[in-house]
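W.,

You were right to be curious about this one. When I first looked at the sequence I had no strong expectations either way, so I just let the prediction run and decided to look at it fresh. Below is the sequence, 351 residues in total, followed by the output.
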Amino acid sequence: MRIAQIAPLYEAVPPLLYGGTERVVAHLTDALVEEGHEVTLFASADTCTRAELVAMRDQAIRLDPAPLKSDLAAHLSMLHEVRRRADEFDVLHFHVDLLHYPFFERCAEKTVTTLHGRLDLKDLAGAHGRWPRFPLVSISDSQRHSMEDLNWVDTIHHGLPEDLYDFSPQPQGGYLAFLGRISPEKRVDRAIAIALAAGLPLRIAAKVDSVDRAYFHAEIEPLLDSPGIEYIGEISDTEKNRFLGDALALLFPIDWPEPFGLVMIEAMACGTPVLAWNCGSVPEVVEPGVSGFIVSSESEAVATLPALLALDRRGIRDSFERRFTSAVMARSYIELYWRLLREAAQHRRTG
């Protein structure tokens, strides 16, 4: 099958530091190549891929030092190039939200659109409603709740290469971990409160976006002086391997409808248990008593820690291998691609 993967241009594929969508696109693309398909990836030039790369920008937007740049212009240029070459592919798989809708309406039946973000935002329902023919994939069932009447064709959970992270049977660090982004909805303040109440160190590896800097300085920075709390900033995949593997557990105390939460399966790949809030996709990812526990309050979180830390780390890794590898993800997408192609052919035959 000839497959085009169209990635956002905000980060390299995979990202050099923080980044979710582009990381998933990287893992999916390589796994599709491994399955024997002819894959072309439209992304920034600093991408590392096993597919044929069509470089649409000299580097990813976020780490580009140019003081003035237009993400809209970059993405429109990419979509123009994809449309120009559309006949070369059996499937066009988009990961750019709904930006491509007006350009590919006439060939919507050969597209797949994975929606990676939250959908409970003003204007989204109206926009999706204007282009109802595009087949959509959700990354969790919970992601659909605010717009259940869209043209959903499947839910496919994210996956990681089986060998990307090392299994760590015995954590060496003796600390709890928080990994991701510092923002009000990620609730690193909860993670700090849990660690302090439990008397355990907490290491925070997280980026701070410009939109969240005021929040960070006003609400989080004062908490970093608490005993045992260490903020180390953004880290790379290489650093993440040891950071998660050496941790006693990952704290995921979110306060928003998380569409998936890639960091949960990154921790599971290392054998590290996950303590997560009952929000968004969490009940679809964490198997209570197997890969972690799901809680609804700080006091419940502290009370659950002994059981969490007693979980079998080999069992956590096994859960990851069974459910969340990139091979599992790719095979689900391949099955979907073939199904949509068969349905499109049937529609053409019946006129």
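Here's what jumped out at me. The chain has two domains: 2-161+325-349, 176-323. And, maybe more interesting for your project: The first helix runs from residue 21 to 34.

Coffee later to discuss?

I.
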